[in-house]
Amino acid sequence: MKKNVVSIVCVICLASVLAWAERPVHETSAAAPDGTVEVSNIAGLIEIEGWDRGEVELTGNLADSIEKVEFEVIGDHTRIEVKYPRNSKEPSHADLKVMVPAGSSVEIEAVSADVTVSRVLGELDLESVSGDVKVFGTPAEIDAASVSGDVIVEFATDQVELASVSGDILVREVRGELEAESVSGKIAVESGLLSGGAFETVSGSIVLEVELDRGHLELESMSGNLTLAVPHSTVADFEVETFSGSIDNRLTGDQSIRTSKHTPGSELEFSTGSGGSRVSISSFSGSVTIGG
Amino acid sequence: MKQCKDSRRWMNDAVDGDLRPDLTERLEAHLDSCPECRRHMDDLRSLVTAAAGLSSELVPSRDLWPGIEGRLTGVPSSRWPVRSVVLAVAALVVVGFGLSLLRAPTTGPQLAPSADPGIVQAHNRTATLDDVRLEYRQARDELMEVVQARSGEVSPETLQVIENNLALIDRAIDEIEMVLAASPGEGRLDRHLLLAYNRQIELLRWAARMPSRI
User: Fold this and answer.
1) Coil, strand or helix: which one is A106?
2) Are A85 and A67 in contact (CB under 8 A)?
C-alpha cells in the first residue's frame, strides 16, 4: 500500500514537472516601420517593446504543453498567436517578448496574461481579461481594457481610452484627451495636462490631480467619491451636482446649494475665469471634492 | 480588423451626432472601403430614423429587433460573443435616444416637465416618464439575459462585482423614485433617474460584451 502511494506521488510530481517544463522560442522577420503587430496569448506574459530596426523579433519561453506559436508576416501585418491544446486541464502559459519597429501599431488579446507595451509610437489596442495592462511611452493612441486586472499608463499623449470592471486605472503624465471607465475600480490620474476627457465609475472613486488646458472634462459616479485637484490658477467653469453626496469646494469660496427639500443633494456652479475649461461633475451618493 | 472594431465602437456616437469630427472622418473613410461595416451603419441609421419618426413614443417597436438582429453581424473578434454584441448594440440604440439627452450640457433638466406632472418634453417629442422607465427596464432585462447566459464564461469574482454594482444602482433608482413620488415633475430628479439608468445599461453592456476568460 505504502509503495503504491509513493508511486502515485512520483507520477504526480513527474506530471507536474512535465507540465511546467519550458522550451524557448525565437523568430525574426523583416517588418514595415509603421505596420501592425497583432499578438494573442492566453496566459503568461506579453511584453512588447519598440526599437529602431525594421524587423519583428519574437523571443520567449513556452510551456511544453503548448502546441505552437504561429508567426507570420503578410504585407505590413505581423501576426503572433500562441496555440494552446484544446480541452487541456494542464496549466499552460507562454512568456513572450516581442521587439517591433517603433512606429508600429499593436493589437493584443490576452486572457490571464499580463501585457506590457513600451516605446511604441503607433496606435495601441490592448485587451486582457484578468491580466494587468501597462503602457509606457507616447503612442499615438491608446485603447486599453482589462476586466479584473489593473490598467497603468505612463507618459500618454493625445487620445487615450481606458476601461476596467474591478481593476484600477492609473495614469501618470497624461497629455491631451483621456477617457476612463470603471465599475468598482479606482481611477487615478496623478499628473499631466488634460485638454478634455470623460471619467465614469459606478462605485469606484475618481481622483484627478492635473492641470486643465481648455476642453470639456466630465466626471461621473454613482457611489464613488470624486476628487479633482487642480492648480489655483486654473481657468474654468465648474458645474457640480449630486443627489445625496456632499460637495466640498476648496478652490474658491463658492458654496453649494441644496436643490431639493426631500434630499440632501446639492449643486454648485462657479467660474474662475472665461475662456478656459468646462468641468462637469455629477454623482449620486459619492462625495465631490474640488481642491487647489 | 482593428479599423472594423474601432468603427463599430464609434457608430453609436456617430448616429447620435456625438462623434468627434476627426473620428467621424476616420469612420467615413473606413465605411467607404468596408461594405460590411457600411451595411452595419446603414442598419443603425435606419433604426434611429425609425425611432425619430415616432411622434408619441421614445423608441421604436420591439418588432424591429428581430430583423435588425438578423441583419447585423458581430464585431470581428473571436472572444467577443456575436449575439451579445448584437443585443448590446440593439439595446443601446433603443435606449440611445434617452441617453442622448444625458449628453447635453448638464445645466437644467433634459426632460423638462410639462404642465402635466406625468409628461415630459424631449426634442419636440412627448413621452411620459413611465414610457422611459418601461423602455429602460426592457433593455435592462434583455441585456441581463445575455449576461446570465454568459455566466459560465466570466469569473465568479467579476460576476459578483457586476451583481453588487447593479444592486447598488437599483437601490439608487429606488431612492430617486421615492423622492420623485414626493415631488413629481422635478427636472433634476428626472435627470438623476436617467443617469442611473444610463449607468445600469452601460454596466450591462460591458458585462454582455466583455471578453470571456477562456
Assistant:
1) strand
2) yes
State which residue of chain A sits closest to B201, comparing Cα positions: A202
CA angle A131, A134, A135 (to 5 degrees): 150
At position B139, the amino acid (one-letter code) is A
Contact A259 B164 (CB under 8 A): no
Q: Report CB contact under 8 Å: B164, A147.
A: no
- Cross-chain CB nearest to A147 (options B158, B189, B195): B158
3 state SS of B128: strand
Angstrom distance (rounded) from CA A32 to CA A43: 28
Strand segments, DSSP code E, in chain B are: 112-113, 119-122, 125-128
User: What is the chain A residue with the closest CA to B183?
Assistant: A262
Question: What cell was used for A157?
Answer: 499623449
- Give the mutation candidate from A37, A70, A195, A202 for the B interface (greatest B CB count, under 10 A): A202
Long-range contact list for A125-130, CB < 8 A, 24+ apart? A125/B2, A125/B5, A125/B6, A127/B211, A129/B155, A129/B210, A129/B211, A129/B212, A129/B213, A130/B155, A130/B213
Helix axis angle, B21-33 to B2-16, nearest 10° = 120
**Chain B residue with the nearest C-alpha to that of A113:** B213
SS3 at position A175 = strand
3-state helix, strand, coil in chain A (%, to 5): 5, 55, 40
pLDDT in tens, B144-201: 888 888 888 888 888 888 899 999 999 999 999 888 888 776 767 888 888 888 888 8
User: What does the pLDDT profile of chain A (292 residues) look like in tens digits?
Assistant: 555 555 555 455 445 544 457 899 999 999 999 999 999 999 999 999 999 999 999 999 999 889 899 999 999 999 999 998 877 667 789 999 999 999 999 999 999 999 999 999 999 999 999 999 999 999 999 999 998 999 999 988 778 999 999 999 999 998 889 999 999 999 999 999 999 999 999 999 999 999 998 899 999 999 999 999 999 999 999 999 999 999 999 999 899 988 777 777 889 999 999 889 999 999 999 999 998 7
A282 closest CB neighbour out of B78, B106, B169? B106
Q: Which of A126, A193, A189 is nearest to A163 (CA)?
A: A126
Alpha-carbon span B125 to A178, nearest angstrom: 34
Element (H, E) at A242: strand A236-242
| Interface contact flag, A165 B202, Cβ < 8 Å | no
Chain A nearest-CA residue for B203: A183
Of A127, A222, A262, the CB nearest to B179: A262
A·B CB contacts under 8 A: 107
